[in-house]
Write a structure and sequence with these properties.
This protein has a single domain, classed as Dihydrodipicolinate Reductase, domain 2 (2-Layer Sandwich), CATH 3.30.360.10. It has helices spanning 4-13, 68-86; strands spanning 17-19, 40-47, 55-61. Strands 1-2-3 form a 3-stranded mixed beta sheet, covered by helices on one side. It is built from 2 helices and 3 strands; from the N terminus they run αβββα. It is of the alpha+beta class.
Length: 87
């Protein structure tokens, strides 16, 4: 079972992820606020009351900057680094 605090801590350490979860009105990032940034912003991390062991979260990013092409390159780099390190 992963609670919202643990999820928040894990996401804060994830590369390319920014957690903005102030738990107040307006304490989350909207799509217009992330324009021009490469990060994926995660907000409103909450337990899902409709699903056992579920979490809800709000994710936004600048799709022109952080889209499928950049994701593919980053995945290839990660896989390449892991394979090269294993030799």
């Amino acid at each position: 079972f992963l609670d919202e605090e643990e999820a928040r801590d894990i996401l804060r350490e994830a590369p390319g992820v920014m957690v903005i979860d102030k738990r107040e009105d307006g304490g989350y990032v909207t799509p217009i606020e992330c324009v021009g940034d490469y990060a994926t912003f995660i907000s409103r991390i909450r337990q899902d009351s409709t699903l056992d062991n579920g979490l809800n979260l709000w994710c936004v990013s600048d799709n022109l900057r952080k889209g499928a092409a950049l994701n593919a390159v980053q995945i290839a780099e990660t896989l390449g680094n892991r394979v090269l390190k294993k030799g």
